[in-house]
Write a structure and sequence with these properties.
The complex is a heterodimer of chains A (100) and B (326).
Chain A: H1 4-16, H2 29-32, H3 35-56, E1 59-61, H4 75-84, E2 86-88, H5 89-99
Antiparallel strand pairs in A: 1-2
Chain B: H1 2-21, H2 35-41, E1 46-52, E2 58-69, E3 84-99, E4 107-122, E5 131-151, E6 157-172, H3 176-180, H4 183-186, E7 194-205, H5 214-217, E8 220-230, E9 237-241, E10 254-258, E11 261-272, E12 281-290, E13 296-307, E14 310-324
Chain lengths: 100, 326
C-alpha cells in the first residue's frame, strides 16, 4: 500500500505540471475565472494527467468536476484537491474483493 | 431627480448588504481562506460599477462573462494521449453602460458564444507529469444582441436594437506570468493578456435599414485587446503562511503576498469591411481598483468611444466595483 507521503508527492508533482512555482500561496483565482482556463484545466487533469497517474504511480485519478475548481483560491488549495482526487489502487482492489 | 435619488439609495443598500457579507480571504492563523469565502468574493463573473461621474450624473457599468463546459473527458478517453487538448464550452457575455443624464447614450450588449479552447500538452521529463501550456487560443461563434444610440444627421439621437452574428478567435499570452515572473512579486497569477479578432455581420435592426447610416449596417472586423494586471510593489503586504494539520495539506509553509492595486484595460477597435464609410472607431474601457478583500472594492472607471456606429457616452466613475452572480 502506498504511503501518505507518496500520495502527497504525486499531488505536488501534478500541481507543478500546471503551476511550476515554488510558492504554494500564490493566488490563482483570477486566472481560473477566465472562461477557457477552468474548463481546460479540468480537461487536462482528467485526460493526460489521469493517464500519467495511472501509468507512473500506485494511484488512480478520480474524475474532477469543473465546478470543484470553483472553490480554489491558491495553489495550496489546488494541492488539496489533487490529493483528494488520488485514489490508492490497492485500496480500490480490496474494496472490490469485499463487495464480492 | 426623485427617481435618481431612489436608485442611488437602492444601490447603496445593495452595496452595504453585500459589504457586510464580504469575508477576508485569509484566516487569523494565516491559513488559506475557506472555499466558501473564496466563492463569495472572487468567483463572481460579472463586474458591476456604480457611482458619481465627473459631470455630476450617476453612472453604472456591468461587464463580464460566464461559461459552461460541454466536455466530459475521462481518464480512458482518447484525449488522454493527445498533444493538443480541445475544450468545448458555451458562454454568455454582458457589457452595458448607463448614466442618469436625460439625453444619455446608454447601451447594452448580450452575447451567447459556443466556443472551443485549445491547450498544448508537453511530455514531462524523466517520469514527471506532462506539462500543460495554455489555454492559448479560444475560437467562437458570437450570437449578439445590442442596444444603443447613434446621432442622426440633424444631431438628434436615435435608439436601436440590432442582432448580429460573429465568428472569431482569441489569442491568449499564456506564458506572460512565467516570462515576467510577476506572480512572485504580486502573489497572484492574473488573467493573461488577450487579443481577439472577430468578424460581425448585422442580421436584423429595429428601425428601417434604409434610414441607417452605412457604419451601422456594415460588416465589420473588431480587434479587442484586454489585459488585467496586479500592480507590484505598491502597498503590498507579506505574510508567512504555516501549513495546516489537515491530512490533505501537501505543501509546507509559504509566503502570502498581497498587492491591493490592480489595473485593467480593454481597447476595442472596429473597422468596417463593407459600405462607403470605412473609418475605424475605438472604444476605451480602463479601470483602476483597490482590493479590500471582499466582494466590493473602490474603483476609478473610464469608458468612452464608438463601436460599430454606436456612440458611447464618456463615463468617468469614481465609485464601487461589485462582483455579481456567483
Amino acid at each position: 500500500m502506498a504511503t501518505i507521503e507518496e500520495k502527497k508527492a504525486v499531488a505536488r508533482a501534478l500541481v507543478r505540471s500546471k503551476y511550476p512555482t515554488n510558492n504554494p500561496d500564490i493566488n490563482i483565482r483570477s486566472t481560473l475565472d477566465e472562461p477557457v482556463e477552468e474548463i481546460a484545466t479540468a480537461d487536462f487533469y482528467n485526460g493526460p494527467g489521469a493517464r500519467w497517474v495511472m501509468l507512473n504511480t500506485p494511484f488512480l485519478w478520480a474524475h474532477l468536476n469543473h465546478q470543484e475548481l470553483g472553490s480554489v483560491q491558491t495553489i495550496r488549495d489546488f494541492g488539496k484537491i489533487c490529493f483528494a482526487h488520488l485514489a490508492d489502487r490497492s485500496e480500490l482492489f480490496e474494496l472490490e474483493i469485499f463487495e464480492d | 431627480m426623485v427617481y435618481i435619488g431612489r436608485l442611488s439609495a437602492a444601490y447603496l443598500f445593495i452595496a452595504c448588504s453585500l459589504g457586510a457579507q464580504a469575508t477576508p480571504p485569509v484566516s487569523t492563523n494565516g491559513a488559506p481562506a475557506s472555499a466558501e469565502s473564496a466563492q463569495a468574493s472572487d468567483k463572481s463573473p460579472f463586474d458591476f460599477t456604480f457611482g458619481p461621474q465627473e459631470n455630476g450624473n450617476f453612472g453604472t457599468t456591468l461587464k463580464g462573462s460566464k461559461f459552461y463546459s460541454l466536455s466530459n473527458i475521462g481518464p480512458n478517453s482518447a484525449a488522454a494521449t493527445r498533444k493538443l487538448l480541445v475544450s468545448p464550452f458555451i458562454g454568455v457575455s454582458v457589457d452595458a453602460g448607463w448614466n442618469s443624464a436625460s439625453d444619455a447614450a446608454n447601451n447594452a450588449s448580450f452575447s451567447v458564444r459556443p466556443s472551443l479552447g485549445l491547450s498544448s500538452v508537453r511530455e514531462g521529463k524523466s517520469g514527471e507529469p506532462p506539462r500543460m501550456v495554455g489555454p492559448w487560443l479560444h475560437a467562437y461563434v458570437d450570437l449578439r444582441e445590442r442596444y444603443g444610440n447613434f446621432k442622426q444627421e440633424d444631431s438628434t439621437v436615435q435608439r436601436i436594437n440590432q442582432t448580429m452574428g460573429g465568428l472569431g478567435v482569441e489569442f491568449r499570452y499564456s506564458g506572460f506570468d512565467e516570462q515576467f515572473n510577476l506572480s512572485s512579486r504580486t502573489g497572484k497569477i492574473d488573467e493573461p493578456p488577450r487579443l481577439s479578432l472577430t468578424y460581425y455581420t448585422v442580421r436584423g435592426t429595429s428601425v428601417e435599414e434604409a434610414a441607417l447610416p452605412d457604419e451601422l449596417k456594415a460588416d465589420v472586423i473588431q480587434l479587442d485587446l484586454k489585459a488585467s494586471l496586479t500592480i507590484p510593489r505598491l502597498q503590498c503586504t507579506v505574510k508567512i503562511v504555516q501549513s495546516s494539520d489537515d491530512e490533505e495539506e501537501v505543501f509546507g509553509p509559504g509566503k502570502s503576498i498581497s498587492c491591493p492595486w490592480s489595473f485593467s484595460v480593454d481597447l476595442l477597435g472596429t473597422k468596417p469591411t463593407s459600405g462607403t464609410q470605412r473609418k475605424g472607431e475605438v472604444l476605451y474601457d480602463l479601470a483602476l481598483s483597490y482590493d479590500v478583500e471582499g466582494s466590493i472594492k473602490p474603483v476609478l472607471h473610464y469608458r468612452s468611444g464608438k463601436e460599430h456606429g454606436l456612440e458611447y457616452d464618456r463615463q468617468l466613475i469614481l465609485g464601487i466595483l461589485m462582483k455579481l452572480f456567483p
